[in-house]
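Lesson 9: reading folded outputs for more than one chain in a single document. The general rule is that every protein is listed as its sequence immediately followed by its structure tokens, and records are never interleaved. Here is the first one.
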Amino acid sequence: MRKYILPTFLLTLMLSFNMTAQCLEDNNEQLPAELIESIEDFPFCSDLSTIPSGGLCDCPAGSLVVGYEGWAGAFWGDDVLSEFSLICRALNSDGTLGDVTTVTCSNGDEQTVTAIPAIEATPGSAMVGAQTNIGCGLDGIVGYELPVADIIAMNPNNGATPMPIIGGTGGTANPVQFVPDGQVIIGMEVFTDSTKNDIAAGVSWHYAEIVGCITSISENITDEIIIHPNPFDSYIMINGLEGENEVKLFDVKGKEIMNVVTNENKLDLAHLEAGVYILNIRLKDNLLVRKIVKR
């Protein structure tokens, strides 16, 4: 009987102490900056030879980006962004997002003609990429969202869904930028054009790894699937599986250790070093993610 109780006890204990624990690891990584055209590139646009950085504008520690808001109607046109800010939510250690949103500092500093209401990702999702339109100004931004459960499961970020645009579609449409799989946008480096009232002049997305979170898309499947023993020595049993299922195993840094499709209930893990691992089991339209410990 103990083998059925122990996993639940460990999970409950972990969640009770770590519901708001930090499970974002910031390695100070950013995507390449996308900037407006300088005087060197196109003299008509700006009097600046280089576009200066205004530093990082990040979500609070432990939070990630879920949307944006701003102002349009800058010097270059009614739809061109003059400033924009990011909307953040706290990431809980069970993979859920907090109820309270936080707005970052702004990229650009010119509240002009039209206020753009907050645009937020689907509940439970976060930004993993963006596409910009840039010319003489930062015309528009389209964020790309992915469910947090899929990010934790290391599903490809290039399968993300576009969000509504902020700003317009003028300028040059740049390719979509995605952060690495298993990571999420947590802020941005800001750039401004001081020759045009400090309007937004570019962006570089700051991102972080999601590590150590535990989540499941469906609460109903948690009672049906029993994983034991946990901690384990050489193998685990997964009771409740039906047919073939995709099983993935990651270390706490998000590195994939194993990826198999199996109809077996016994998983031989004797080759693993002692430590903590994240087990993902794809069950038709559901994803079960659990922490397991090798002794």
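And here is the second record, again sequence then tokens.
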Amino acid sequence: MEQMEKRKKYNIKPNLSQANLSEADLSVADFSEANLSYTDFRGAILNYTGFRGANLCYADFSEANLRYAKLIKANLRRAILNEADLSEADLSKANLRKANLNGANLNGANLSYTDLSEANLRGANLRGANLTEANLRGANLTEADLTGANLHKSKLYQTNVYNAKLYKTNYREALISKTNIDGAYFTMPEKQPEQQKNQYFYAPVGNVADKTEGSQNTTYNYAPEQKQSLAEAATEIQKLLDQLSDTYSETEAEQKVAENLANKAKQDPSFKEKLKSWSQSLLSKGTEAGIAEFAKEGAKRVIPLAMTFLA
């Protein structure tokens, strides 16, 4: 404690740049404002360790355990965090520009106001993570799990969320531009029969509109009753058409959504049958009554068009 006070008094910043601390147990240690650039932390145990304001540029944390670590305002530019465990860690206001977090565990982590521009988060676990006002410009979130994550007011410009899981993700007031959400999973059934596991409804779009503000993902679950499933699917389709409307003409947007529905049906026989049933049901006036008025017309054009691509 006395040494910490002296550091504050004389503004002493420890310099451990390029040190080899791999596999060391440094839990609860305090590296606040230290220079740790290029330091080797591979496989290190860093639970509850403090890195507030530290310089960690190019540091290697591959497979390190950073559970509950404090990395507030830390500079992690181009740091390597492949397969690192950062669950419940606090990375608020940190600089993670061009950092490599491939397969990292960020479950419940605080990434609010964090710069993740051009960062690699491929396959990362971001379940329940707080990404409020985070900068994700050019970030790679391919196959990342963002279930229940908070993306309120975050910036997603040219962000890649291909095949990412976005169940119950909050992106209210997020700024979304030229973002690739092809194949992203927006919904998941609450109860899945054993034989239907991993048969999710793909978000049938390629790139969202140039700018979408104030959008809030509305999740739905496929119900046993077909009428309800069709109504929910029609609502989701219409929202996706609305997102594409600023970039594409109405006809082009409908074709893109229909093509992606058809592609999903070609890969998933059970979804193909569901699509056929929806197409038939749209001809029934009784079923139409269960669909929200704003979504009815879009579904009536897109779903039959998807069936023509399957013919």
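What the second record shows: Confidence is low (pLDDT under 50) at residues 6-11, 188-228, 286-290.
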